[in-house]
Request: fold
Amino acid sequence: MAQQGKWAAVAAGVLAVLVLAGADAAQANDCNSCPVMHKLGRGLANTTLGLVEVPVAMIETSKVHGQTAGFFVGSLKGLCRAVIRTGAGLVDTLTFPFPAPMPDYEPMITPEFPPNLMEA
Reply:
């Protein structure tokens, strides 16, 4: 029973943070005035779509160095980028209410969001 109480307290804390952040965002009309929610969205996008970096890097490398290099070198480059992007997304998601680790809610990596696979 004590375990359920701990989870209820954690859930209530998370809900309180989301409600407070949502109340702030509800007063704002554009994303520039709600950096907290922008950081959360960026974090969720980077966490869930980080693996898109693999095919994008393969396509980019294939265009410059050929298909064989694109398959081998591009997949390794993409995997490294995916790990970095997913990690940055996790940090952004977990720290979204705070302007840390970067000042003023700035992105940790560029581009800010995962690349578009259709434009690669």
Residues 23-28 have pLDDT under 50 and may be disordered. The chain has four helices and no strands. Helices lie at 2-26, 35-49, 53-65, 67-94. Residues 67-94 form the longest helix (28 residues).
